[in-house]
Design goal:
heterodimer; A: 465 residues; mainly alpha; disordered N terminus; B: 991 residues; Rossmann fold; seven-stranded mixed β-sheet; six-stranded mixed β-barrel; 28 helices; globular
């Protein structure tokens, strides 16, 4: 990742904070009244959410026909949004689980929010497979459970069924991991609260008493969950990619897809974490906790994964050329030069060209520039899924059935609504849950890891069980 | 169910049922006593406890099990070709129409229009009873008004009809004309008047000849779309297919040359297609005749005019081929132009085709319209000489140019009577409406060709109170009697004696009613006079047709395969049937040659104004249509009809939906408004989005996107006849059969695998199968906006591909439905197992289980799956009666697709089991598409049975499967189209 000496030379948390400072800083946003800026953000997000609810309600009541799909293009915004949101979720797991296992301490400033982001993103993602069904009220039929419908069972060969398990597992583990990590901070909040709030927090803190034994079990649980979550980083998006990879449609039918999707997910997830963190550190006054050093580290992840994504794009094109299969070759020519070329080139510009700017330290250290680039990557990754799904479907084997696709107002409202849901949940999270992992932050305070203690650099108080 | 019509019908039935009681002297008291006793008698046995045993109800009534299908032989009323029909009925109503195999002309085929006649029956907008000045009245009141006017009308009575093909109606018309002293005027749209006049002058027979194509070796058609709309397309198509059998041990393949100004169905199937502008048609025929005269060493009949370069040479080759096949060839001409018709007759006369393939002794009777009589009628109307005008079957006001002042003329008749059951422009001007019944609900007869007589029987009690023209005329002449009595009377008096049968009339009539058809060989035929050369000279020296100036195009108004002249404009199946050539639905468009469109700077969808010299104009969206002559703008007739405003409510309605009718409230534009001939075509600056079912019209990929070595998707294949002849068999298979499998077969052979074979060489793209499928399988109509969004629901579509342009244009038609793959990509991806494989090789869709992920449709390489985006309610509740009770009506949110008519397979299996057999015999199951096909291009059967017809056909060297390289192992096998493009090969050979 980054040069170890460099990591240790710079403090992870600025402003010479004491443990008490950390506590008061982290808990301030949830203990004071909401700011006008929070209300403004919440108002916008909730409005978008309501718009989305109305759109989905209309669509479920009227029919999928209110979307711009047709006989040739059966999936477009729905599954694009699904894959996009699942991808967003990945950074959370990667940051909290993989970086925990790799003892990357800089993650402590962002892991709580990133995990929350994961959960909210998976929630957003989960809506789409549900509402994209023609009869969503029968969605429970995709679960294999004993039922009275005779011998009817699910189709274990269908990647959509694998999705059900992949997403279900992912959501469960992510939620558990997040909640377990949250317990010490909930206890702190409990100890600082009074009245009803205290009683609720008592219940939520699950009787945390701060004893060494509790800490030890907590640490063990965290590491175990991290170990469980780590394979999910790879598996979830690999499974999602099989929705396409196992299909016969040129442009979908590619063995490259699992790693390609995983790396794309990490890429988009980190971009989203950056977007959120850059806003949060300003709005929530967390500049000392989310420092340019964190931003720089994430930028390096971004340029690395962005380059891998570019490699995947090239590999895809090479495979098509090397396959000598005319439909395969046509798909890529059509993507680049066909009627939807604008989407392809948007994707290339946003995902391949734009991140290369992050090689420059000047740009990495300019927070506005990084913010803009993080948005650009998010747009690009949305388009990547759109390009894969829609351009492949519009022109497949039989030319008579070639078609095109344009979204309807309902689909656009549904996409906006999913952002509304995400930001509504995220803003509520900022308001009611400690947004930074206070307990873990204290472990990386400069006094906790004195300058030059290489061996012990990974160990915080109570961390070595 | 109808909410307002049936109660009346039921009351009538009940009243009729009581009549015998009244006659028997059963009064009210007696009736009540009997009824009371009956009720008590019914109740008393019911007081005992029901036996606790297995009860086996007896489900037959009069020999037929309740709910069983039965078939009634009748006659199609869709056009004057009057094909034989078998109406499949159940529970007292027809559910599906099939061709009647015993009819000697149509021989089991039925076209798209015939299939859609079923929906015309279940039309809630048909008038229910007579109307006088917009007020619904009783029959007696209406008759009083009409008879009063007839009494006062004297010689001013006019009866305007379409060509009357019914002998019994014709007999009553004769009586009516004699009784009133009026006149009967027949019209055809399009008119065959010139052909009638030419044959009258040259041969003394005022009729169009019967054409027999089955044995021809060369057929040359000049502006005659005989496979699509000209004459008797179903019979012609069957003959045409019979004359071309490339798989015969010695290939028998009639060469088909089409000379036309715009692409027609026949042109799309021709071996050689020559584009000439309408004003050049006479010159082209003259050139042909001159070349034929050269072969016959006779002087050319007329001077030849200049033709486009290349056309003359091709006509010379055609002449050589025709000469080589003299006596077994046919020259057809569909132009309503007397000199052209005369040249055509001369050519056939020289070739010795009269009496062989072109039969004037037993002519066709489907076209007898007289343009001169119509002009006289309009004159009479204009000058107020018409007291009573009775109009039957013609929407005259919508069929003639505005400049002819038809609307004003019709208003001048003292009393105008219309028999139209549906709203149209002419009926709107009528004072009295005496609605005709639908062809499926009344007795009728038809004789489209001399001696070929068919009977039409009601298949359902009348859904709307109507009365045929025959019965009306009889009533106005004071004769009482319904159609049954009138038809029977005529048959008894006139036809029985001609039948040559020894059977008594009743027995004979019942036998005819059972089969629906009878051949009357003794029907008086008029022996044609010898060719009258002097009359011929008079015709060919007529003034030349106007040549368009350089800034105008020639407007060609043609009949579309679906709407014909507009009489089917209110049939939603036909409105939504993709035009076989343009693939446009719910609209007519101005077809321009791609080069002409480019020259005018018009892009598809741009609205252009067609302005005639007389100042009239019509606005239409333009379409660059290959096969259109550069000097021509071709537009389909039959659109822009008043009644089509009813379709404002068709299709799903949601926030972004748009209504089906255009801005002026009707579907399409009425091109008949302006006279055919030179028009100025200018862009209006407006644009509209045409609703088509196909956006990409070529198998060649766009050049800038075509990968090397894969520039063409060869889904619809063609092979040259010469290639087959050279190697004495079919073309080699394009792809070697798949080799060893990596995995064990998902579905091991079990002895039965249902499949189809589709012979692209026989397929003419007529779309009968598409409508048959829609009728059989309850496929909904979705409206213009949904088709524009590419959400048509058709299970069977016909893909149409162009290659080349101009004279080199080649057109392929490919019916495509679910291919019932053995390795079906759709089956693996459904998460809930809603699409599965059956033991007899069907790919099944389980609607109840489907949750609607659409993954199967995405993964279908053929894109034949259809999703229910909305709940599609019919535009009219009565339409629900047309739904097939054997087929589930799908709800919103589920996927559907071709089932290979699984309901028919199931029924045949039950029958076979009942008869002790294991599986239905080959040919016992026929799918709807197969059954309707006029050329028998589609065959259904068990592909695993080596003795079955499909297995035999699939062994042809021409056989291939679409996208075979994917190894999805489709159950549908296609046979490459054979085309005789080689000038010296095939049917032209002199042998």
């Amino acid at each position: 990742m980054t040069d170890a000496r460099h990591v240790l030379d710079e403090p992870l948390i600025g402003g010479a904070k004491s443990a008490a400072d950390v506590t008061s800083d982290v808990f301030a946003p949830i203990e004071r009244r909401a700011t006008a800026r929070w209300w403004a953000g919440f108002g916008v997000a909730a409005s978008l959410l309501l718009l989305g609810v109305a759109a989905v309600g209309y669509q479920v009541a009227t029919g999928i026909g209110t979307w711009g799909l047709n006989r040739t293009v059966g999936w477009a915004f729905d599954i694009t949004n699904f894959v996009f949101w699942v991808g967003i979720g990945h950074a959370g797991t990667l940051i909290s689980a993989v970086l925990l296992l790799f003892r990357q301490k800089w993650r402590t400033s962002i892991n709580r929010a990133a995990e929350a982001m994961t959960i909210f993103a998976v929630m957003c993602a989960g809506i789409f497979p549900l509402i994209h069904m023609g009869r969503p009220w029968l969605a429970h039929w995709v679960f294999p459970y004993p039922n009275l419908r005779g011998p009817l069972w699910v189709n274990w060969r269908s990647p959509l069924l694998w999705d059900v398990f992949a997403i279900g597992t992912y959501f469960t583990i992510s939620l558990l991991f997040w909640y377990v990590g949250l317990i010490p901070d909930l206890a702190t909040a409990r100890d600082r609260a009074r009245g009803l709030r205290r009683r609720v927090l008592e219940w939520m803190a699950l009787g945390w008493d701060g004893s060494a034994r509790t800490w030890a079990r907590h640490e063990t649980a965290c590491v175990l969950l991290a170990a469980l979550a780590t394979p999910l980083v790879v598996s979830v998006h690999s499974v999602v990619s099989t929705d396409f990879a196992t299909a016969v449609i040129p442009g979908w039918h590619a063995t490259l897809f699992p790693p390609y999707f995983v790396i794309g997910a990490v890429f988009s997830g980190f971009a989203m974490v950056l977007t959120l963190m850059l806003v949060a550190r300003k709005v929530m006054a967390f500049e000392d906790y989310i420092t340019p050093r964190h931003v720089g580290a994430m930028c390096k992840v971004l340029v690395f994964t962005g380059t891998l994504v570019a490699l995947a794009y090239l590999t895809e094109v090479f495979t098509a050329w090397y396959s000598a299969s005319p439909p395969e070759r046509f798909v890529f020519l059509n993507r680049a030069f066909g009627p939807m070329a604008w989407a392809f080139w948007t994707m290339v510009t946003c995902n391949v060209l734009a991140p290369q700017l992050l090689w420059f330290r000047r740009i990495r250290s300019s927070l506005p520039a990084v913010f803009v680039l993080s948005l650009v990557v998010n747009v690009g990754m949305w388009f990547e899924r759109f390009v894969i799904i829609v351009t492949s479907l519009t022109r497949d084997f039989v030319p008579s059935s070639w078609s095109s696709y344009a979204p309807t107002s309902i689909e656009i409202a549904t996409l906006l609504g999913s952002f509304g849901l995400f930001f509504t949940l995220f803003l509520l999270f900022c308001r009611f849950v400690p947004m930074l992992a206070a307990a873990e932050l204290k472990s990386v305070l400069p006094h906790g890891a004195p300058h030059g203690r290489h061996d012990d650099a990974t160990a915080g108080p109570g961390r070595n069980a | 169910m109808s909410t307002d019509a049936l109660p009346d019908a039921e009351i009538a039935v009940a009243r009729d049922a009581l009549l015998p009681l009244q006659r028997a002297g059963v009064g009210r008291r007696t009736f009540l006593q009997l009824a009371g006793f009956g009720a008590a008698a019914a109740v008393l046995p019911a007081c005992s406890r029901a036996p606790d045993r297995h009860v086996v109800p007896r489900l037959d009534q009069g020999g037929e099990p309740v709910g069983a299908r039965y078939r009634i032989a009748t006659t199609c009323g869709g056009c004057e070709a009057r094909c034989g029909v078998l109406a499949t009925c159940r529970d007292g109503r027809p559910l599906k129409l099939e061709g009647n195999p015993e009819h000697a002309l149509s021989r089991g085929g039925l076209c798209a229009v015939g299939q859609a006649e079923l929906l015309g029956l279940y039309d809630g907008r048909r008038a229910d009873g007579p109307q006088v000045r917009g007020r619904t009245v009783t029959w007696d009141e209406a008759d009083a008004v009409v008879t009063q006017a007839l009494r006062e009308g004297g010689a001013g009575v006019r009866l305007l009809t379409r060509t009357v093909t019914s002998p019994s109606t014709r007999a009553w018309i004769d009586r009516f004309v004699r009784a009133t002293g009026g006149r009967h005027v027949e019209v055809d749209v399009p008119s065959y008047s010139a052909a009638l006049a030419v044959h009258e002058e040259l041969f003394g027979v005022r009729a169009v000849p019967q054409i027999r194509l089955a044995s021809v070796r060369v057929v040359a058609a000049f502006d005659a779309d005989f496979l699509g709309t000209w004459g008797s397309p179903v019979a012609f198509a069957r003959d045409w297919a019979e004359s071309r059998d490339p798989d015969a041990p010695t290939p028998r393949f009639a060469r088909h040359v089409q000379v036309e100004s715009h692409l027609t169905l026949s042109g799309s199937r021709a071996d050689i297609r020559i584009e000439v502008a309408p004003h050049e048609l006479r010159a082209a025929l003259a050139a042909l005749c001159a070349a034929l005269a050269g072969h016959a060493s006779r002087p050319a009949p007329t001077g030849t005019a200049a033709l486009a370069p290349g056309v003359g040479a091709r006509l010379h080759k055609l002449a050589a081929a025709l000469w080589a096949a003299r006596g077994a060839s046919a020259v057809l001409c569909g132009a309503d132009d007397a000199p052209a018709q005369a040249l055509c007759a001369w050519a056939n006369h020289l070739l010795g085709n009269y009496g062989a393939t072109v039969d004037l002794a037993r002519p066709a009777l489907h076209a007898r319209g007289d343009d001169a009589a119509l002009a006289q009628l309009l004159d009479d109307l204009g000058e107020g000489r018409v007291s009573v005008l009775i109009i039957d079957g013609v929407d005259l006001a919508a069929s003639l140019p505005d400049a002819r002042g038809v609307t004003a003329a019709l208003k001048r008749a003292a009393l105008c009577v219309s028999t139209s059951a549906l709203e149209d422009d002419t009926r709107a001007l009528a004072h009295v409406v005496v609605p005709a019944p639908h062809a499926l609900e009344c007795w009728d007869d038809a004789e489209p060709v001399v001696g070929h007589v068919s009977l039409a029987q009601p298949t359902v009690p009348a859904l709307r109170a109507g009365r045929s023209l025959r019965a009306s005329l009889a009533a106005w002449l004071g004769a009482r009697g319904d159609d049954f009595a009138l038809v029977r009377e005529h048959w008894s008096a006139e036809l029985h004696a001609l039948s040559g049968t020894g059977a008594p009339f009743d027995v004979w009539f019942d036998a005819v009613a059972r089969t629906g058809y009878v051949h009357l060989p003794r029907r008086a035929a008029q022996e044609p006079r010898p060719f009258d050369a002097a009359a011929f000279e008079r015709f060919v020296n007529a003034p030349a047709t106007p040549v368009p100036t350089s800034d105008t195009l020639t407007l060609v108004a043609y009949d579309s395969v679906a709407l014909r002249d507009g009489r089917h404009a209110q049939n939603p199946w036909l409105q939504e049937l993709p035009d076989p050539l343009t693939k446009v639905v719910w609209d007519n468009v101005a077809c321009l040659a791609p080069a002409t469109a480019a020259r005018l700077g018009v892009r598809p969808g741009d609205v252009v104004r067609l302005a005639a010299a007389d100042g009239s104009s019509v606005d239409l969206p333009a379409l660059a249509q290959p096969g259109t002559h550069p000097d021509v703008v071709a537009v389909a007739r039959g659109y822009g009809r008043r009644g089509t405003s009813r379709f404002a409510g068709i299709g799903p309605r949601w926030i972004e939906s748009r209504p089906t009718p255009g801005a002026d409230g009707v579907v399409g534009a009425r091109v008949e408004r302006i006279p055919p001939g030179p028009v100025h075509v200018v862009a209006t600056g407006r644009a509209t989005e045409i609703a088509t079912t196909q956006d990409h019209h070529r198998m060649e990929l766009p050049t800038h996107l075509a990968p090397r070595g894969g520039a063409v998707r060869d889904v619809a294949r063609a092979v040259a006849l010469a290639e087959i002849v050279a190697k004495g068999g079919g073309a080699p298979p394009h792809h070697a059969p798949p080799g060893a499998e990596l995995w064990p077969a998902d579905h091991a052979p079990r002895g039965v695998r249902w499949g189809l074979t589709i012979d692209l060489s026989a397929c003419i793209g007529c779309s009968a199968c598409a409508v048959a499928c829609q009728a059989e399988n309850c496929v909904p109509v979705v409206g213009r906006d949904e088709v524009r969004r590419h959400r048509e629901m058709t299970w069977l579509r016909i893909d149409r591909y162009f290659s080349g342009d101009g004279d080199d244009l080649s057109v392929e038609h490919q019916p495509l439905m679910c291919q019932h793959c053995a390795h079906a990509p759709c089956e693996t991806v459904c998460p809930v197992l809603a699409t599965v494989h059956s033991e007899d090789g069907l790919n099944q869709q389980v609607y109840n289980r489907c949750v609607g992920t659409r993954y199967c449709a995405n993964n279908c390489p053929y894109k034949v799956r259809r999703f229910n985006w909305f709940d599609y309610a019919p535009d009219d509740d009565l339409r629900r009666l047309a739904l097939n009770p054997d087929v589930t009506v799908r709800s919103r949110g589920v996927m559907e697709k071709c089932t290979l008519c699984v309901q028919r397979i199931a029924e045949a299996r039950i029958v076979a089991r009942g008869a002790g057999g294991a599986a239905p015999a080959d040919g016992a199951v026929r799918t709807a598409c197969e059954e309707s096909c006029p050329t028998q291009a589609i065959r259904f059967g068990n592909v695993e049975d080596p003795g079955s017809a499909v297995a035999r056909i699939a062994r042809s060297d021409r056989a291939y499967v679409v996208l075979g390289e994917l190894n999805v192992q489709p159950g549908v096998t296609y046979l490459s189209r054979v085309r005789d493009t080689e000038p010296q090969g095939g049917g032209a050979r002199d042998d």
